[in-house]
Amino acid sequence: MKISIIAVIVLPVLLGALSCEKLESDFTALDKQYRAAKRIQSPTSRYDYYYRYIAKGAELMAWCRNDPRNYSYTEIVRKLCAADRERSGLRQSVIEEQWRVNNVQPVVNIIYKECVYQY
């Protein structure tokens, strides 16, 4: 009985530590490629990389906030904010690339009307 109670209490803690280690290793791998991501030619690929980087960093912060190991959350937040700025700067070029790839022309609706001023 005591063994089952201990297993029920200790098992989630051990599984949480293992998932934090995996998340940490995944984020570290993406972080090592961060500088090289600026040299990616395709805006869509670069946007995708920044999206995965932000998602993995946010997941690490969310799941491992109660982990007894010390994470430097301010540094992670600073990195994620910089990646988000880079990602949002790519939106227009990603849209234009998708237009070229999929042969789509933007819909422009121009309506000319006379302006009438009343005094």
TrEMBL record:
Q: Which PROSITE patterns match?
A: PROKAR_LIPOPROTEIN
- Report the domain of life of the source organism: Bacteria
Protein name in the entry: Lipoprotein
- Species of origin: Sulfurimonas diazotrophicus
Q: What lineage is on file?
A: Bacteria, Pseudomonadati, Campylobacterota, Epsilonproteobacteria, Campylobacterales
